[in-house]
Fold this sequence. Notes:
By secondary structure, the chain is an alpha/beta fold. Helix content is 23%, strand content 28%.
Amino acid sequence: MQIYPVETGNFKLDGGAMFGVVPKVIWQRTNPADANNLIDVAARCLLLEDGKRLILIDSGLGNKQSDKFFGYYYRWGDYTLDESLAQLGFHRDDITDVFMTHLHFDHCGGSIQWNKDRTGYEPAFKNATFWTNENHWQWATNPNAREKASFLKENLLPMQESGQLKFIQRGDASFVEKSELGFDILFVDGHSEKQMIPHIRYKDKTLVFMADLIPTVGHIPLPYVMGYDTRPLLTLAEKELFLNTAVQNEFYLLFEHDAHNELCTLQHTTKGVRLKNTHTFDEIFS
């Protein structure tokens, strides 16, 4: 098995929204804001090459939304999903599975594209199975008012209509059936109902794809919870349990949204669990 980080494109989000009740004077030490209070954000995905399977974890924003839509998110940099796959010697048609941690547009938007005539939408990975879980699917397709702007029907319904959508159940081995993957899923509910956090055993280490449980290095301290989370007090409890488990088991955390740090380790301090070291992926797993 081989694992590769895949950069799909950077964008910007409001720093206040990203850090909730934490004052700017504190959070800007780790995530400096520009003149518009926007911070750098990545859409870093993960590619797993496992025998005949090529599994993509999340798919970024995609490119099918309007210029007005993307105007809110200030995309920057030169990364694209197709170019990143090509650099690794792959094409989107090679992807056999797309595992979606959750269905907010910045995590699954790249899974769906315009059709050839631009009259409708189609899966961007024609040979892939799309994986989510039924509880989250129901949450996303019948959204609450708080998250409605993040669950876009054009990102969701074409997966189902194509027949390529499958559900993972808690404790279900269907996703990794007949696979050599050391792959476990932590289900968390603070950010969104049944977000899935992959834990992957790789080269005798445990790599955790953090999605929106801990989006950047700056979000490691417990109170640093995004304003986007639907149940912030639950996020606190989920983070505390995860952080202590991560230190105890020497997990490596891979950040989907940290534009400047790929990977980190953690340590116990007198202030609680804190950053130990940052690394590039290749420093640890090459």
